[in-house]
Structure formats: C-alpha cells, structure tokens
C-alpha cells in the first residue's frame, strides 16, 4: 500500500508541474463504462469496461496529466454497447480511487429529475473535495426513453427541458430557498443541504452540455459553463464558436462559456501508420450497428432540426464509426502532428480536449508521455495564442475540401 501511495504521490506531483500554466489547454478522456470500446468496429480493442480496468485507466490518466474524465450514459443496449454501467455511481467509484482527476458525470433529463441529480452530485462533491462535474445530455436514442416509460419529446423540446434542468441544478446548488415554475419542473422554497463546495470562480460543480443545433447553442449561451463540440472542419469550428460567443454576449455571459471538443486520437511513429490504423478501424466497422446508429441520430438529432444543423447532420458512414465525429478532429498522425493540431484548436478557443483511444490499456499513458508534454513545451514557447499563425501552419488539414488551399 505504501508503494502505491508513493507512486500516486509522485504522479500527482508530476501532473501538478506539467499543468502549472493557468492558460493551458486541458485534457480529458472518455470513460469506457460501456462495453464495445469507443468505436463501432469489429477491430480488436484493448479497452475494457469493468471497474478494475477503469480504476487503472483513471489512476494512469491523472498520473500523466489528464485533468478530467467523462462517464457515459446509456440506459439500454445498442450499437455495439451491449452492457453499460450507470455513470453517477461509476464516477463516484473512480473518484474514491484517485486524488486529482475530475469526473464529468453524464445526466439525462427525463430519467433523471433535477432534485435527485442535484442531491447526488452535491453529496459526491462533498465526499471528493469538489472533483465532480456534470454533462447534461438531451438524448437522441428514442427507444431509450420509450422502453422505460418516458415521454419522447421532439428535438427542440428536449433541449428546452435540458435548459430548465440546468437552471434548476444551478438554483438548487446556490440558493437557500429555491423556487422555479417551468413547463417541465416545479420547485417551491426548496433548500438542499449540504450544498456543493464552492470557491472563487466555482460557485457550483461545472456544467457541460453539447450539441450542434441552434437549440444546443442557445442552451450553452444561457445556462452552461462548457459547450461540447463534435469534430468539424476549420470553418465549422470557427462558425460554431463565434455563434455561441455572440449568443452568450447577448445574455451578458460572454466570458462565462468555454469550449470543449471531442477527439479520437491515433498516435503512431509515422503518419502512414496512424492512417493505416484509422483505415482498419473503418474497414472493420460493424456495418449493421453503424447503420442503425446512423438512422437514430439522423432522424432524431441532425435532421430533426428545422435548419438541419443538429449533431451528425453532415456525418457520413465512416465518421459515425466513432460516436461523436472524433475522427474529424484529425488527431491522427505523429505526436508532433497531433501536438501542432491541438495548439491550432486551442487558438480557435478550445479549452478542454476530450480524447478517446483504440487501446486504453496502453494509449492513455502513451498520450500522456509523448503528446501532452510536447503540447506543454510548445505552449511555453508561445504556441497556441496566435490563431493566424496556427491556421497558416496547420489549418489546411481541417479545411473543407472546397476551401482547402493547394
């Protein structure tokens, strides 16, 4: 036990040193608390979804400098994820086995009531010295709702319910007598005790929320702390970030909304090797599962919005092999190429990079040893601040084909 404690202490010291810059980009990883890994493919994956494996991943991640981990929410099997551990309890288990890592817990309005969620998260926050956050998802899997007797709302109403849900969480966590009279939730002088921990700059646990639609962007602008984005083109990232910032400014929240981005990382000694791995993942895709997933997300997310701007609206088959368009983020290549691209993303406004890997057993540690220190070295040299320089250096890889320079 003392040896393990020493290793954790040394790891914590290293992570503290490598993350000393207050203006750094931060790193997170998807928690594989559902089976099937992070790609819908029949390629062998050295990634396990059991708790002991995830404890090892979490301890390794915080040792090499990751600051966040995001647990997934699934209520039923589908699309390669035949088994799922519940995210609140799973995240709490990981928090008790780590020292510095923050867990972002996925919550789904409908199955979760904000009163129960607020109580759970406030308690866990107290147990873990303020290391819990939430990711409020609005849902895209219709059967996940109807099979447990929940109403299936149309796209705009799901996001409107999520906005009320987040508003209630914030009110419950910060007010002694919280009242709310919405279309989905009602509270009357509710007083939660104990409340979550708070300190300067952190009035309550951080609230993440994602989506690509106008509904999602409005939620980010009005109530969220972080806005999660899927992979995109350079122009897509610029448009999306600028739009959310403009909407937040109209709500007098221009400095209160930050941006996080999903990415699937394939780091190899040469770019050709990394691309070969990508091609193998896509070539061995579980075609039936990917097509079923595509049908769900195109009908209930991307194409469900009036302007067709929802998540996955423009995603092709090969994109959907990774759930959140992670291949589009282009972190596929050598450590140097990946570091350069991360600094471009930082210059565009990305504060947290949410990573996923094919082989969690070794690739979390590999990223932490090879890529993360390189990013920190380049940040110390001033990289990631000058957006025009970063676009000139790396931007072509992200441009849509019609705008790509030659």
UniProtKB/TrEMBL annotation:
Specify the Luciferase-like domain's residue ranges. Answer: 43-350
- Taxonomically, the superkingdom here is Eukaryota
Q: Which GO terms describe its biological process?
A: alkanesulfonate catabolic process
InterPro entries, from UniProt?
Answer: DMSO2_SphG (IPR024014), Luciferase-like_dom (IPR011251), Luciferase-like_sf (IPR036661), SsuD_RutA_monooxygenase (IPR050172)
Q: From the Swiss-Prot or TrEMBL record, what is one GO molecular function term?
A: alkanesulfonate monooxygenase activity
Q: Key word Zinc present in the record?
A: no
Which keywords does the record carry?
A: Flavoprotein, FMN, Monooxygenase, Oxidoreductase
| Stored PANTHER family | ALKANESULFONATE MONOOXYGENASE, ALKANESULFONATE MONOOXYGENASE-RELATED
Q: What is the protein's given name?
A: Alkanesulfonate monooxygenase
Tell me the organism. Capronia coronata CBS 617.96
């Amino acid at each position: 036990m003392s040896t393990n404690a020493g290793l954790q202490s040394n790891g914590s010291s290293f992570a503290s040193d490598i993350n000393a810059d207050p203006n750094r980009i931060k790193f997170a990883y998807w928690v594989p608390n559902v089976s099937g890994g992070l790609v819908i493919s029949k390629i062998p994956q050295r990634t396990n979804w059991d708790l002991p494996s995830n404890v090892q991943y979490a301890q390794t991640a915080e040792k090499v400098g990751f600051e966040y981990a995001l647990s997934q929410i699934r209520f039923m099997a589908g699309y390669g994820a035949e088994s799922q551990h519940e995210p609140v309890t799973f995240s709490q288990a990981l928090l008790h086995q780590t020292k510095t890592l923050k867990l972002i817990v996925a919550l789904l309005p409908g199955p979760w009531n904000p009163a129960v969620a607020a109580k759970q998260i406030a308690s866990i926050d107290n147990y873990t010295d303020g290391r819990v956050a939430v990711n409020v998802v609005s849902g895209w899997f219709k059967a996940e709702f109807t099979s447990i007797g929940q109403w299936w709302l149309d796209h705009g109403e799901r996001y409107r319910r999520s906005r009320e849900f987040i508003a209630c969480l914030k009110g419950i966590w910060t007010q002694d007598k919280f009242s709310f009279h919405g279309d989905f939730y009602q509270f009357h002088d509710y007083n939660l005790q104990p409340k979550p921990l708070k300190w300067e700059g952190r009035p309550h646990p951080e609230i993440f929320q994602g989506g690509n639609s106008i509904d999602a962007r409005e939620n980010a602008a009005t109530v969220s702390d972080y806005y999660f984005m899927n992979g995109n083109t350079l122009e897509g990232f610029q448009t999306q970030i600028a739009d959310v910032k403009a909407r937040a400014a109209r709500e007098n929240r221009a400095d209160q909304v930050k941006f996080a981005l999903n990415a699937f990382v394939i780091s190899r000694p040469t770019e050709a090797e990394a691309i070969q791995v990508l091609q193998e993942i896509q070539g061995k895709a579980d075609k039936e599962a990917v097509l079923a997933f595509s049908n769900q997300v195109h009908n209930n997310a991307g194409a469900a919005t009036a302007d067709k701007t929802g998540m996955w609206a423009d995603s092709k088959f090969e994109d959907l092999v990774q759930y959140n368009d992670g291949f589009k983020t282009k972190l596929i290549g050598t450590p140097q190429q990946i570091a350069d691209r991360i600094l471009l993303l930082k210059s565009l406004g990305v504060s947290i990079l949410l990573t996923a890997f094919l082989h969690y057993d070794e690739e979390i540690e590999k990223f932490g040893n090879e890529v993360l220190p390189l990013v920190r070295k380049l940040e110390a040299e001033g990289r990631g601040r000058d957006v025009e320089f970063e676009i000139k250096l790396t931007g072509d890889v992200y441009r849509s084909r019609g705008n790509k320079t030659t």
